[in-house]
Amino acid sequence: MTPAAPSPAPLPGAPFVSYRHGQLMVEDVALADLARAHGTPLFVYSSAAIGHALAAYQRGLAGRDALICYAVKANSSLAILKLLADAGCGFDIVSGGELERALAVGAAPEKIIFSGIGKTRQEMRRALEAGVGCFNVESLAELDVLSEVAQGCGRVAPVSIRVNPNVDARTHPYISTGLKGNKFGIAHEQALAAYRRAASLPGLRVAGIDCHIGSQITEPAPYLEAMDRVLDLVAAIEAAGIPIHHIDFGGGLGIDYGGTDDPSLPPPADALWSALLARLDARGFGNRKVVIEPGRSLVGNAGVCVTEVLYIKPGEQKNFCIVDAAMNDLPRPALYQAFHRIEPLAAPAPGAPAVIYDVVGPVCESGDWLGRDRALAVAPGEHLAVLSAGAYCMAMASNYNTRPRAAEVLVSGAEARLVRRREGVQDLFRDELA
Ligand code: LLP
């Protein structure tokens, strides 16, 4: 046993996630009260934290012709989408399903950007009928199909081509997308030819250019490099007589997950964007409309996942703290060996003896862990919070092991609203035939 070391401050999500009188709070609501009222596992989001993260982007882009299109994939819960739509955001979508979600919360269709490498004809048709603002096209074959589909429904599809700038985002290989070996985008060298083709197709209208180099990026350098490469292309494309109205720089800005072994902290969104806009100005493109597609950096640190400790299982090599949340609720550790801080809802008394645990879920896989080698002073029946759980957690949750998905609560000040009911077991096999 080791003494429970005080957690290194500050908590990711602070000041919206904080201890008050020994109780872990989201804004002015004690998580223990929410766990009692709604059960666990439970996702809880701070609307003020989302507003705060969005404000940094808005400050950074103030005075510019800019559109912030929230990447729906990061957290597609309707309450989160509604909050961002009401705050003026557009949306970056990658499926017909995400389109319906955005429309369901009243998103302005012209502020929706349709990304993704595998759009079906049906998805294209629906998006054209809805009047989305732009299709980010990722292959020559897709250009042809989109033109055909648009003609078929008597529309002209606004398009950007997603170019692959061949820039190393220096992030986890699974979430790095701007290198040559990735499946995304059209190679820099082929971009001009692709634009010529797009401009010649009757169902298309060239609107802009797009790039996205990866996710959880913690340095400005890859963005600046990608921007330079994209601007070189804009110059070449315009010299060929094809005007580029907007430049979409994608998403990708990382968040601080609070890992002590990872010293690289992402820059704040406003600082990043002042640097990027300075480069845009210096290159003579300062008056161009800018579109961005942030996901994680808007919602990641606004959410926590509350879980109950079921069992403590001491072992010869490892001690296990078995909790009721699992890889189906929170797949990032299993998928990317991702680090999330795990904190007790009730702060331990100073000097309380702690044990080093692997925090694991009930799913039948060794990969089902939420945190490794964590010093915790906890007992069954007590609760923990997995922090930085606002992005790519609930949105990637599955029903593996026939586990219903968690409930979600949105907090605003002292008010907490259930925004997704816990899934019922019957919901899981309602559409099946025995
Ligand atoms: N735009 C495009 C075209 C994207 O592919 C993505 C993310 C974004 C925007 C938003 O990126 P963000 O700002 O959230 O970094 N599941 C992984 C992350 C996958 C990101 C996929 N694309 C994770 O949990 O780390």
Key traits:
434 residues; alpha/beta; Lyase, Ornithine Decarboxylase, Chain A, domain 1; TIM Barrel; 10-stranded mixed beta sheet; 12 helices; binds ligand LLP
Concise overview:
The chain is an alpha/beta fold.
What does this structure look like?
- The chain is α/β, with parallel strands linked by helices and 434 residues long.
- The chain folds into two domains: 17-46 and 300-428, Lyase, Ornithine Decarboxylase, Chain A, domain 1 (Beta Barrel), CATH 2.40.37; 115-294, Alanine racemase (TIM Barrel, Alpha-Beta Barrel).
- 28% of the residues lie in helices and 25% in strands.
- The strands form three sheets. Strands 1, 5, 15, 16, 17, 18, 19, 20, 21 and 22 form a ten-stranded mixed beta sheet that branches.
- Helix 6 links the parallel strand 9 and strand 10.
- The chain starts with a strand and ends in a 5-residue tail after the last helix.
- 48% of the residues are buried.
- The protein binds ligand LLP.
